[in-house]
Design brief:
179 residues, Hypothetical protein af1432, 69% helix, binds zinc ion
Length: 179
């Protein structure tokens, strides 16, 4: 079984390959991998690098949802815990967006502590990407909508890691300043 830096490096490489060609929302048209790097790095930083599996799950957190990757494949390569964490933060893409959003709010408090950390790091990264210099009306509306929802999801996830909660609050405050 892979551990430590080998686990994290292989997770990053698989994520890079699977998400290759995908771009994230935002005006920079950034490669999707930037989002995964940010989430993994947030998780590593707030836990002082103590949990390689959590960081690997950060790299991989969107693979089941957005790429042709299964839980079984992740379990085989990265172990049951990493695969389980990714599965926990995966939305059911057969549902409409509004229903997926509603379920994230309802399900957030039921997630494991580590899945909650990934959820918060994901929202921090997504909020940061939606903060524009001199946003237009449409960008403001999208950001306000995203913030209202993210706040509800994160309400059900907070209290595990104070540093991560603070980073979320800072991203939220900074974003609100631009509205
Ligand atoms: Zn994500």
């Amino acid at each position: 079984m892979l551990t430590g830096l080998c686990l994290v490096s292989e997770a990053a490489e698989l994520a890079a390959r699977r998400h290759s060609g995908q771009h994230r929302k935002g005006d920079e048209n950034e490669p999707y991998i930037n989002h995964l790097a940010e989430v993994a790095s947030l998780l590593a930083s707030v836990t002082d690098g103590a949990d390689a599996e959590l960081v690997a799950a950060g790299w991989l957190h969107d693979t089941i949802e957005d790429t042709d990757t299964s839980r079984d494949e992740l379990a085989e390569r990265f172990g049951a815990r990493v695969a389980g964490l990714v599965e926990e933060v995966t939305d059911d893409m057969t549902l409409a967006k509004s229903e997926r959003r509603r379920l994230q709010v309802v399900d957030a408090p039921k997630k494991s502590p580590d899945a909650k950390l990934i959820k918060i790091a994901d929202k921090i990264s997504n909020i940061r990407a939606r903060i524009f210099f001199e946003p237009d009306a449409e960008q403001k509306e999208e950001l306000a909508d995203y913030l209202a929802w993210a706040e509800q999801v994160v309400k059900g996830c907070r209290g595990i890691n104070a540093r991560l909660d603070t980073l979320f609050d800072e991203a939220m405050a900074h974003a609100k300043d631009t509205l």
